C-alpha cells in the first residue's frame, strides 16, 4: 500500500471514531391520522448517524440530520469508543422544515462525563471544511451506521455533481458513495479528514446517487443555533425573476445581466436595502450574477452557485453589499442579512407544536402545509381552496376532524372547511375562537366559512373550562 493511500485509510479510520449512532424513540410524523387529529400520536423507533463536531471549545456536541430527531421523545447515542453503552442526549436545535436537513444535539453534562470515563480514547471531534468547495471527481468517504449496523460503515465515492439551491431549498452535493437508510446525519470526509458535508438523503429508484448538505451551510446553522437560537438562513426578502434581452428597453440595459426584482417583502432584506420592484440585482458581496441569477466567473465556472445560495451564506446580523441597477443607473447599497417575516400559513412538522381546539365535535387547527398535504388524501377540492391562502399574511383556521354523533356530524359539517368568522367577528387564531366561545356560555356560536357555509352550534357547560 502506498504511503498516500495508507494516510487516507488512517484518516478515515480516525474519523470513524468520531461518528456515532443515534437511537430515537418518538412519533411517526407522516401519519395522516395524527396530522388531522393531533390527539392521535403514533409511536415509533428509528436510528440514524451523527458526528462529534469541532466548534470552538465546546464539548459533547453532535451534528445530525433534523429528520433523525425531529419528533423525538428520547434520544440516545452509542459509539465504537464505548462498546455497546448508550448515552442520553438532548436536542439543542434543528431546522424544522429540513432545508437544510441539519440538527444539533449534545450529550448531557452527566452523560459526557460518563462517556469520557468509559471511552477507550479521547473523543475525535470532526472539523467542518471551510473555504474552497470540493470539485467534481474529488474523492470522499461517507461514514455512518446504515440499516441498523452496530459499527460504523465507510463507503468510498466521488463528488459527481452539484444541485443549486432555490428560494426554498439549499445547495446539495451529489455523490456516488453509497448512502443508505441509517447513514443519515453521518459525515462525508475528504482526503485531509475534513468534513465536506452531511450525508442527507439517497434518491429513491436511482442507483449510486446520494445527496450531501455542504459543510458551509451546516456551519451557518450551528452558529445561528448557538448564537441566536435561530436555525434559519438569511433570505432575499422578495421575489426574483430571470432577466432577458426583451427587457433591455424597459430596464434601460445594454445587455441582460442580473436578476429582476418582481416583489419586495415588507420589513425584509430587500426592503431594508431600499430595493424596489423592477430594480436589477447585479451582485451581492462582489459576487456578480448573470441573467439567470447564477454567479459569474471562477466561483461559478464548474458549478452553479446562484443568488439564493449566496444570500444564505451571509450570517444573520451581518451587513451585505448589493449593487443594483434602477432606470439604467448603477447604485450601491447595504443591508443587514435577516430571515423573512413569517407568513400566516407555515409548516408545522413538530407534532408537539401542533395546537388544536376540540369543540362542537370537531378538531380545529391553524392551517399548515402539512394539513394541506394530508387533506389531499381526503378531499382534493378542499386542498385547492386551501392552496389559495398560502401567501396571506394572516393565519387561518381549518376543520381537520369530525367525531361521529356530534353536533358537527349532525349538520354534516365538512372536513377541510376554513373558518373565517365566529358570531360575525373575523377570527384568525385559536385564541380568537376560544374568546368568542367563552363569551357565549349557555348560548350558541355561529361559524362562517370561507366558502360561505354556516354552522350554528349550541354551547354547553362542558366548554366553561376551555383552555
Short structural summary:
This protein is an alpha+beta fold. 20% of the residues lie in helices and 31% in strands.
- CATH arch. level architecture of the largest domain: Beta Barrel
Overall pLDDT score:
87
- Low-confidence segments, given as residue ranges, are none
End-to-end Cα distance, whole Å, is 69 Å
From the alpha-carbon coordinates, what is the Rg to the nearest angstrom?
A: 26 Å
- Tally the structural domains: 4
As a percent range, the share of helical residues equals: 10-25%
Q: Describe the biggest sheet?
A: 7 strands, antiparallel
Q: Class of the largest domain, according to the CATH hierarchy? A: Mainly Beta
Structural class: alpha+beta
Report the β-strand fraction as a percent range. 25-35%
Provide a count of the helices: 12
Q: Remind me, CATH topology of the largest domain?
A: Thrombin, subunit H
The total of beta strands comes to 25
Q: What characteristic shape results from the CA principal axes? A: flat
Structure description:
By secondary structure, this protein is an alpha+beta fold. It has 4 domains: 3-125, Thrombin, subunit H (Beta Barrel), CATH 2.40.10.120; 127-228, Thrombin, subunit H (Beta Barrel); 238-337, Pdz3 Domain, CATH 2.30.42; 355-463, Roll (Pdz3 Domain), CATH 2.30.42. It has 12 helices and 25 strands. It has helices at 3-16, 32-36, 66-69, 109-118, 215-228, 248-251, 269-272, 307-312, 369-378, 380-387, 407-410, 430-439; strands at 19-27, 43-52, 61-64, 72-79, 87-94, 103-107, 139-144, 153-163, 172-175, 187-189, 195-202, 210-214, 238-241, 259-264, 280-284, 287-288, 319-326, 329-336, 357-359, 362-366, 397-402, 418-422, 425-426, 444-449, 454-458. The strands form 4 sheets. Strands 19, 20, 21, 22, 23, 24 and 25 form a 7-stranded antiparallel β-sheet that branches. Strand 17 and strand 18 form a beta hairpin. Helix 9 (369-378) runs antiparallel to helix 10 (380-387). The termini are far apart.
Amino acid at each position: 500500500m502506498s504511503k498516500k493511500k495508507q494516510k487516507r485509510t488512517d484518516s478515515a479510520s480516525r474519523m470513524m471514531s468520531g461518528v456515532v449512532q443515534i437511537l430515537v424513540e418518538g412519533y411517526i410524523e407522516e401519519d395522516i391520522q395524527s396530522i388531522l387529529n393531533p390527539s392521535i400520536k403514533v409511536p415509533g423507533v428509528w436510528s440514524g448517524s451523527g458526528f462529534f463536531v469541532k466548534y470552538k471549545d465546546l464539548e459533547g456536541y453532535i451534528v445530525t440530520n433534523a429528520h433523525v430527531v425531529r419528533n423525538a421523545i428520547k434520544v440516545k447515542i452509542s459509539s465504537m469508543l464505548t462498546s455497546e453503552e448508550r448515552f442520553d442526549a438532548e436536542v439543542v436545535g434543528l431546522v424544522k422544515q429540513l432545508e437544510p436537513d441539519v440538527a444539533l444535539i449534545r450529550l448531557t453534562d452527566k452523560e459526557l462525563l460518563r462517556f469520557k470515563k468509559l471511552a477507550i480514547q479521547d473523543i475525535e471531534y470532526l472539523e467542518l471544511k471551510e473555504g474552497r468547495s470540493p470539485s467534481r471527481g474529488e474523492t470522499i468517504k461517507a461514514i455512518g451506521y446504515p440499516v441498523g449496523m452496530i459499527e460504523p460503515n465507510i463507503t468510498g465515492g466521488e463528488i459527481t455533481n452539484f444541485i443549486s439551491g432555490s428560494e426554498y431549498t439549499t445547495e446539495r452535493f451529489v455523490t456516488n458513495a453509497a448512502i443508505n437508510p441509517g447513514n443519515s446525519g453521518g459525515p462525508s470526509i475528504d482526503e485531509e479528514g475534513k468534513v465536506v458535508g452531511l450525508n442527507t438523503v439517497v434518491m429513491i429508484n436511482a442507483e449510486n446517487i446520494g445527496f450531501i448538505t455542504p459543510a458551509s451551510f451546516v456551519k451557518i446553522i450551528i452558529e445561528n443555533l448557538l448564537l441566536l437560537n435561530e436555525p434559519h438562513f438569511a433570505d432575499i426578502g422578495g421575489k426574483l425573476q430571470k432577466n432577458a434581452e426583451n427587457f433591455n428597453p424597459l430596464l434601460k440595459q445594454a445587455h441582460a445581466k442580473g436578476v429582476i426584482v418582481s416583489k419586495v417583502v415588507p420589513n425584509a432584506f430587500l426592503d431594508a436595502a431600499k430595493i424596489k420592484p423592477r430594480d436589477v440585482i447585479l451582485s451581492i458581496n462582489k459576487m456578480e450574477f448573470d441573467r439567470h441569477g447564477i454567479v459569474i466567473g471562477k466561483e461559478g465556472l464548474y458549478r452553479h452557485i446562484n443568488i439564493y445560495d449566496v444570500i444564505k451564506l451571509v450570517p444573520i446580523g451581518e451587513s451585505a453589499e448589493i449593487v443594483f441597477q434602477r432606470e439604467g443607473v448603477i447604485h450601491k447599497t447595504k443591508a443587514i442579512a435577516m430571515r423573512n417575516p413569517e407568513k400566516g400559513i407555515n409548516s408545522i412538522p413538530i407534532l408537539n407544536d401542533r395546537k388544536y381546539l376540540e369543540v362542537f365535535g370537531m378538531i380545529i387547527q391553524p392551517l399548515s402545509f402539512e394539513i394541506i398535504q394530508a387533506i389531499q388524501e381526503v378531499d382534493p377540492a378542499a386542498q385547492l381552496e386551501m392552496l389559495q391562502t398560502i401567501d396571506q399574511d394572516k393565519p387561518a383556521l381549518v376543520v381537520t376532524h369530525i367525531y361521529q354523533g356530534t353536533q358537527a356530524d349532525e349538520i354534516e359539517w365538512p372536513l377541510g372547511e376554513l373558518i373565517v368568522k365566529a358570531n360575525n367577528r373575523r377570527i384568525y387564531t385559536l385564541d380568537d375562537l376560544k374568546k368568542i366561545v367563552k363569551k357565549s356560555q349557555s348560548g350558541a356560536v355561529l361559524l362562517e366559512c370561507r366558502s360561505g357555509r354556516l354552522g350554528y352550534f349550541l354551547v354547553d357547560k362542558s366548554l366553561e373550562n376551555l383552555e
